[in-house]
Amino acid sequence: MSDMTAGATAVAGAAAGERTAARAYLRLLAAVRAVLGDRHELPYAGPLLALPLAEADAALGAAGIAGNERDFLSLVARQAASDDPRGPAPGGATGG
Predict the structure, then answer these.
(1) Nearest to 96 by CA among 29, 22, 42, 17
(2) Each residue's pLDDT tens digit, 15-62
(3) End-to-end CA distance of the chain
(4) Maximum distance among all alpha carbons in the chain?
């Protein structure tokens, strides 16, 4: 494998890891909204959120972006916009 191909593969892998982390974070946000939006689930918030929190934490660490909130949240916003079936909001902002 040439240096150029190896470099491109490494970049693609890093980008995939970042997308995985962003998706895990978005799943965590959805879980938090669901649990906190149902007063009957509030007493079980810790156990219900433990798995999505661990998944997001592991994905952040694997992508090497833990502790870099500004870049990560920018990535999350782009991922949320690309996952939104309505498409990006006018002006590049994400809908919510």
Answers:
(1) 29
(2) 888 889 889 989 999 999 999 999 999 999 999 999 999 999 899 889
(3) 44
(4) 57
18 exposed, middle or buried (CB, 10 Å; 0-12, 13-18, 19+)?
buried
What single string gives the DSSP state of each residue in 35-56?
HHT-TTTGGGHHHHHHHHHHHH
Q: Which two tokens stand for residue 59?
A: 């994905």
Structure tokens at 85: 């079936």
What the block records as the tokens of 87 is: 């498409």
pTM of the model: 0.66
Percent of the chain scored above 70 by pLDDT?
Answer: 73
Q: Please say if the pLDDT value at position 4 is more than 80.
A: no
The number of helix segments (H) and strand segments (E) in the chain equals 3, 0
DSSP state letter for 64:
T
For Cα atoms 8, 9, 14, give the angle at the middle one, nearest 5 degrees: 100
